[in-house]
Amino acid sequence: MSEMITAAPRPAARPNFLLLVLEMRTYLALLLVFAYFAIMAPNFLSVDNAVLISKHVAINAFLAIGMTFVIITGGIDLSVGSVVGLTGMVAGYLVLNGIYIGGGYTVYFNTIEIVAIVCCVGIFVGWINGILITRLKVAPFIATLGTLYVARGVSLLLSDGRTFPNLNGNPEYGSDTFPMIGSGTVFGLPVMIWALIGVTLLAIYISRRTPLGRHIYATGGNERSAALSGVNVDRTKLFVYMFSGLMAAIVGIIIASQLKASHPATGEFFELNAIAAAVLGGTSMAGGRGRIWGTIVGAFVIGILADGLIMMGVSSFWQMVIKGLVIIAAVVIDQFQSRLQSRIALAQETEGGR
């Protein structure tokens, strides 16, 4: 009687507790900083402080969402802070001065038109970054560092280094609603929070449900393999930098609207907060990995950390040190997680092949 020989079933993959902790690090960090400041910082749990933190988080989150897409493709965008300053100055200029077209005529714009123009400015700067990187093959770090200086310089030139004050708009031109962008509320929530919710849902949809999202991850995972698979790598990179520029323009508009003034120095070091939020949220600096929702949680960690340190009276110098350490720690942990995942995958393949 012949015996049937069957292959032994492969052992089930054993869960790794350390890897699980690393994957949940953003949520654990959020829980820790929230609990710490709730205990140590006075009035941290007040409603007014919660609204203030949410506004600060929203500003960082917009930039971090754009930065996440850029980093997933294996790039970096150092220009976003300067683009915030530039677009805020453009918004202030349009509200106050309009555009002189010659012959003694000046064209003034309503709020919607101002927002559209300023967003186009941000997209254009992102397009310049994308062209430098894809067509001229300039390294992302160098290309965006160059546009950082150019955008900041143009911001200074627009007003000769001065502030555009009193951006209350003019009812005659329909620009009097401009301050509502940064200070208005809808159903009890600030307008900027509703805008962030919309942008977050759009970004999640793009990343999870569209071919473009798959192309973004494929480009960062292995650019050559993606190109051989039919992915238009240059077009994908162009999109992420233009999207990042758009996010910076939105932040520039929000800040100018909140303050009812625009200053060319606005946005300095904003790129560091955006990078920190993205990396802390699980986006790999090596590219190919990242989640929008993780970035939002990372933005909350950075926002709560910054506001909590201020409420405790910590020096702004020490705040910069702490943010820098957070970025370094996030990158180190990400590298450790990648190596651990590789070792676990190799061990499972070896065990399964026996």
UniProtKB/TrEMBL annotation:
Keywords per UniProt: Cell inner membrane, Cell membrane, Membrane, Transmembrane, Transmembrane helix, Transport
TM regions (residue ranges): 27-45, 57-76, 83-101, 107-126, 138-158, 178-206, 238-257, 293-311
Domain of life, source organism: Bacteria
Protein name in UniProt: Ribose/xylose/arabinose/galactoside ABC-type transport system, permease component
Subcellular location: Cell membrane
One Gene Ontology MF term: transmembrane transporter activity
PANTHER family, A to Z: ABC TRANSPORTER PERMEASE PROTEIN YPHD-RELATED (PTHR32196:SF21), ABC TRANSPORTER PERMEASE PROTEIN YPHD-RELATED-RELATED (PTHR32196)
One Gene Ontology term, aspect cellular component: plasma membrane
Upper classification of the organism: Bacteria, Pseudomonadati, Pseudomonadota, Alphaproteobacteria, Hyphomicrobiales
Entries under InterPro entries matching the protein: ABC_transp_permease
Entry membrane topology: Multi-pass membrane protein
